[in-house]
C-alpha cells in the first residue's frame, strides 16, 4: 500500500540541518535556477548538442561564477555554499556544473591564485559577471593523466626582442575553448618548467575546434586547441605559478566541486527511481512494494547520504584551510563512483523506460562517465591514496 506520508529524499536524513542560513540560501537559489532555467530545455539541449550560452550572464548575475573567490566582483562565499550550488546545478545536468567549474574553479582560480594585479583586474570582474568566458588549457591529446609529459612549449619571442613568449602545441578536451574570450594555457619554458599564460583567444595562431561525436556531456562544449606561434607579451605569464603546483592547485578546486556535484546527479536519479517505484505497477502492485526494489532504493539512499556527508566534511575542512589533496581524492573517487552506481540501479528500477528522455537517468549516467574521467580518473585517485597510505609512489 502506498504511504502518502513518504518523505522526499532530502527530508529523510535532513543534511540541510547542518547548513547555515547563508548556505541554505545559496542552495535554494541554485535549485531555483536549475529548475527554472536549465531543466525545461535540458533534454532537448542534450539531444541537439546545444549549449545555451544565454544562461552564462544569468549565472553571473546570480553570483555563481567564481563565487568562492573574494574581491574583483566575486561573491566571497564559503566552500560549503559553493559545494551546495554545484550539487544543485549538477542535479539538473553535469554540463552546467562543469561550466561553473571551468569558469570559476579553473580559469578564474588560476588568475586569482597566480596572476598579477593587472591580470586580475582585467579579467576577473568580467568573468564573474559572465561577460567574459574562460578556459583552462592543460590536458593534451597523448595523456591527460600525465601533465608532466606535456609537449606544449613556451619560448622567448626573438622577433619581439626577447621580452614576450611564443606558444606552440596542442591541447584536448578543453572545456569552453571555442566560446572563450581568454584561455589559461600551461606550457613548458626552455628550462622545462611548467608556466601558465593568460591568452586572449583572439590572438593569432590560437584555434579551437569543438569535439564532435560525443555521447556524453552533449549540452556542453569541449574542444581541441591548437597553438601555432601564438605570440603573447611578457605580461601574459602568470607570475606566481612555477611548476605543476600551479595547475594542480586549480584542479583541486575543480575536484572539490565535483565531490558535491556528483551527488546532485545521484539525487536526481534516486528521486526518479523513488517516484517511478510508487507509480509503476507489476504483478498487480507498485514495484515500490516489492522487497527487492525497496532494498535497491535503501542502498542507493545510504550511498547518496554518505556522499553528501563526505562532501560536507571536506567543505568544513576547506573552510578551515585544512583540506589536503589526498582528502579531495577520497571525495572524488568515492562520490563519482557511487553516483554512477546509483544511476545504474535507478535505470534498472525504471526498466526499459529508463533509457528514454522521459527520465533524466540515462543522461546523468552518460554524463557521469565523463565526470569519472576528468580531473583525475579513478586509477589516479587510487594511486594518490595508495601513496598517502604507504609513503610509496606507484605512478
Automatic annotation (TrEMBL):
<dbReference type="InterPro" id="IPR013786">
    <property type="entry name" value="AcylCoA_DH/ox_N"/>
</dbReference>
<feature type="domain" description="Acyl-CoA oxidase/dehydrogenase middle">
    <location>
        <begin position="135"/>
        <end position="230"/>
    </location>
</feature>
<dbReference type="InterPro" id="IPR009100">
    <property type="entry name" value="AcylCoA_DH/oxidase_NM_dom_sf"/>
</dbReference>
<comment type="pathway">
    <text>Amino-acid metabolism; tryptophan metabolism.</text>
</comment>
<comment type="similarity">
    <text>Belongs to the acyl-CoA dehydrogenase family.</text>
</comment>
<keyword id="KW-0274">FAD</keyword>
<protein>
    <recommendedName>
        <fullName>glutaryl-CoA dehydrogenase (ETF)</fullName>
        <ecNumber>1.3.8.6</ecNumber>
    </recommendedName>
</protein>
<dbReference type="Pfam" id="PF02771">
    <property type="entry name" value="Acyl-CoA_dh_N"/>
</dbReference>
<dbReference type="InterPro" id="IPR046373">
    <property type="entry name" value="Acyl-CoA_Oxase/DH_mid-dom_sf"/>
</dbReference>
<dbReference type="Pfam" id="PF02770">
    <property type="entry name" value="Acyl-CoA_dh_M"/>
</dbReference>
<dbReference type="InterPro" id="IPR006091">
    <property type="entry name" value="Acyl-CoA_Oxase/DH_mid-dom"/>
</dbReference>
<dbReference type="InterPro" id="IPR052033">
    <property type="entry name" value="Glutaryl-CoA_DH_mitochondrial"/>
</dbReference>
<keyword id="KW-0809">Transit peptide</keyword>
<dbReference type="GO" id="GO:0046949">
    <property type="term" value="P:fatty-acyl-CoA biosynthetic process"/>
</dbReference>
<dbReference type="InterPro" id="IPR036250">
    <property type="entry name" value="AcylCo_DH-like_C"/>
</dbReference>
<feature type="domain" description="Acyl-CoA dehydrogenase/oxidase C-terminal">
    <location>
        <begin position="243"/>
        <end position="389"/>
    </location>
</feature>
<dbReference type="InterPro" id="IPR006089">
    <property type="entry name" value="Acyl-CoA_DH_CS"/>
</dbReference>
<dbReference type="Pfam" id="PF00441">
    <property type="entry name" value="Acyl-CoA_dh_1"/>
</dbReference>
<dbReference type="GO" id="GO:0000062">
    <property type="term" value="F:fatty-acyl-CoA binding"/>
</dbReference>
<dbReference type="GO" id="GO:0033539">
    <property type="term" value="P:fatty acid beta-oxidation using acyl-CoA dehydrogenase"/>
</dbReference>
<dbReference type="GO" id="GO:0050660">
    <property type="term" value="F:flavin adenine dinucleotide binding"/>
</dbReference>
<dbReference type="InterPro" id="IPR037069">
    <property type="entry name" value="AcylCoA_DH/ox_N_sf"/>
</dbReference>
<dbReference type="InterPro" id="IPR009075">
    <property type="entry name" value="AcylCo_DH/oxidase_C"/>
</dbReference>
<dbReference type="GO" id="GO:0004361">
    <property type="term" value="F:glutaryl-CoA dehydrogenase activity"/>
</dbReference>
<keyword id="KW-0560">Oxidoreductase</keyword>
<feature type="domain" description="Acyl-CoA dehydrogenase/oxidase N-terminal">
    <location>
        <begin position="21"/>
        <end position="131"/>
    </location>
</feature>
<comment type="pathway">
    <text>Amino-acid metabolism; lysine degradation.</text>
</comment>
<keyword id="KW-0285">Flavoprotein</keyword>
Amino acid at each position: 500500500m502506498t504511504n502518502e506520508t513518504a518523505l522526499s529524499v532530502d527530508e529523510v536524513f535532513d543534511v540541510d540541518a547542518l547548513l547555515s542560513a547563508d548556505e541554505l540560501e545559496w542552495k535554494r537559489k541554485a535549485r531555483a535556477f536549475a529548475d527554472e532555467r536549465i531543466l525545461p530545455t535540458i533534454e532537448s539541449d542534450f539531444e541537439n548538442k546545444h549549449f545555451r550560452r544565454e544562461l552564462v550572464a544569468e549565472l553571473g548575475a546570480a553570483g555563481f561564477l567564481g563565487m568562492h573567490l573574494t574581491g574583483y566582483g566575486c561573491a566571497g562565499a564559503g566552500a560549503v555554499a559553493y559545494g551546495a550550488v554545484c550539487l544543485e546545478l549538477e542535479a539538473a545536468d553535469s554540463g552546467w556544473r562543469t561550466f561553473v567549474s571551468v569558469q570559476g574553479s579553473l580559469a578564474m582560480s588560476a588568475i586569482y591564485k597566480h596572476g598579477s594585479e593587472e591580470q586580475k583586474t582585467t579579467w576577473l570582474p568580467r568573468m564573474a559577471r559572465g561577460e567574459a568566458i574562460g578556459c583552462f588549457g592543460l590536458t593534451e591529446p597523448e595523456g591527460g593523466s600525465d601533465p608532466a609529459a606535456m609537449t606544449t612549449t613556451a619560448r622567448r619571442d626573438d622577433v619581439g626582442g626577447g621580452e614576450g613568449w611564443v606558444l606552440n602545441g596542442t591541447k584536448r578536451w578543453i572545456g569552453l575553448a571555442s566560446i572563450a574570450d581568454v584561455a589559461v594555457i600551461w606550457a613548458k619554458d626552455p628550462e622545462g618548467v611548467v608556466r601558465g599564460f593568460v591568452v586572449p583567444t583572439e590572438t593569432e595562431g590560437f584555434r579551437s575546434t569543438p569535439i564532435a561525436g560525443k555521447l556524453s556531456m552533449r549540452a556542453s562544449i569541449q574542444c581541441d586547441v591548437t597553438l601555432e606561434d601564438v605570440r603573447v607579451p611578457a605580461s601574459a605569464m602568470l607570475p606566481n605559478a612555477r611548476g605543476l603546483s600551479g595547475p594542480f592547485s586549480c584542479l583541486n578546486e575543480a575536484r572539490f566541486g565535483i565531490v558535491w556535484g556528483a551527488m546532485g546527479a545521484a539525487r536526481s536519479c534516486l528521486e526518479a527511481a523513488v517516484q517511478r517505484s510508487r507509480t509503476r505497477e507489476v504483478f498487480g502492485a507498485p514495484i515500490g512494494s516489492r522487497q527487492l526494489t525497496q532494498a535497491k532504493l535503501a542502498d542507493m539512499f545510504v550511498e547518496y547520504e554518505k556522499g553528501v556527508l563526505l562532501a560536507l566534511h571536506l567543505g568544513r575542512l576547506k573552510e578551515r584551510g585544512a583540506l589536503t589533496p589526498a582528502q579531495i581524492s577520497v571525495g572524488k573517487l568515492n562520490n563519482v563512483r557511487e553516483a554512477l552506481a546509483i544511476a545504474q540501479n535507478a535505470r534498472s528500477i525504471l526498466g526499459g523506460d529508463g533509457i528514454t528522455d522521459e527520465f533524466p537517468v540515462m543522461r546523468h549516467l552518460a554524463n557521469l562517465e565523463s565526470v569519472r574521467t576528468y580531473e583525475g580518473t579513478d586509477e589516479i585517485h587510487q594511486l594518490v591514496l595508495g601513496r598517502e597510505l604507504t609513503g610509496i609512489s606507484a605512478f
